[in-house]
Amino acid sequence: MKSMRKLFSVLLAMCVLLLSGTAMAATDITGGVIRVEGVSGVGQSFALKRIAAKVDAQRLLAEQIHGVQIDSNTTVENAIVTSDVVKASVSGVVKGAREVSCTTDEYGYVHVVMELPLYGGANSLAAAVIPNVPQQGFLPPSDIIPVDTKPAAPAVTTNPNQATVGNLYGATGQYTGLIVDCSGLGLQTAMAPALYTDGKKVVYGLENFSHEQVINRGYVGYSNSASSGVQRAGSNPMVVKAQSIEHFFNPVISKEDAARILAENQMNGFLSTGNVVFVK
Questions:
Q1: Helix axes 160-169, 255-268, angle to 10 degrees
Q2: How many CB atoms lie within 10 A of CB 82?
Q3: What is the C-alpha separation between 186 and 226, in angstroms, rounded?
């Protein structure tokens, strides 16, 4: 029995290591673009070396793109394997990637820097890989914490809806965006993550936006700090702390924070702008 338990523990540890390795292998998309540098050989004309460097850059770009996580279950590489349409689209955006610079070093090698934006229209990675899902509205806060568990609202009001979310959930309607602080939890980046409650309900995700919105701007930005790189959340962001991370990519928050976020959204629709930042 002890030997079986030991074997089970070893196998479990190996599985954890494999899963951790998969998450760590994901291409980081914090900067919003994928940038690579291709290098030529020597002994050719400048024109041929530039072509060779560009081909090298496109190869590197394809490698980086394949490691981008679309959602918690799918990488770009997975999507390419299962869909010829996605494969052709990804190939097209790689070939259409922008050449940022072309330089020659002291040894005669040509260096070409190329980059591909994650979002921003037909030439973006999002246009090639983000699925078009039916759009759904945001949940009301009462779906997370029912109204009858909160103190009663005042009997007289000029706007019952705003009074309900304001008095029962503490909403003010003054926030410009949302920052979810996931620092220390090992969050990995994805193009279509979801924000969950600890009850596994989706507070914020791909289904809350039109396909056009997601392709043009995405709906989540990433930062390495809650004090910098969070301009996307606007001048007065709401800040909540994640409790844990689900499947490496999806922050999980408390029901209380989820209800408060959704109540704020009922006040002014601030989630629909996509001004949300996850801090890693």
A1: 150
A2: 11
A3: 15
Helices in the chain by DSSP H: which ranges? 2-24, 46-66, 76-82, 84-95, 125-129, 160-169, 211-217, 255-268
Q: Give the domain range for residue 223.
A: 141-279
pLDDT at 44: 87
Q: How far apart are CA 240 and CA 251, in angstroms?
A: 11
Q: Answer positive or negative: Cα dihedral of 216, 222, 228, 229.
A: negative
Domain limit, last residue, from 109, 129, 149: 129
Average pLDDT over residues 147-160: 49
Stretch 72-88: mean pLDDT, rounded?
96
**Same domain? 86 vs 203:** no
- HSE at residue 126, side-chain half, CA atoms within 13 A, is 24
The model's confidence at residue 26, banded by pLDDT at 50, 70 and 90, is confident
On whether the CB atoms of residues 114 and 98 are closer than 8 A, the answer is yes
8 lies in some domain = no
**Tokens 């760590």 sit at which residue?**
24
**DSSP count for the chain of H helices, then E strands:** 8, 11
Q: Is residue 220 part of a domain?
A: yes
Q: Cα 55 to the chain's mean position, in Å?
A: 29
Question: pLDDT tier at 166 (50, 70, 90 boundaries)?
Answer: low
Distances (CA, A) of 250 to 88, 90, 191: 29, 25, 11
Q: How far is CA 76 from CA 66, 69, 83, in A?
A: 5, 6, 10
200: left (phi over 0), alpha (psi -120 to 50) or beta: left
- 189 with 145, same domain? yes
Q: For 30-54, b where at least 16 C-beta lie within 10 A, e where not — what string?
A: eeebbbbbbebeeeeeeeebbebbb
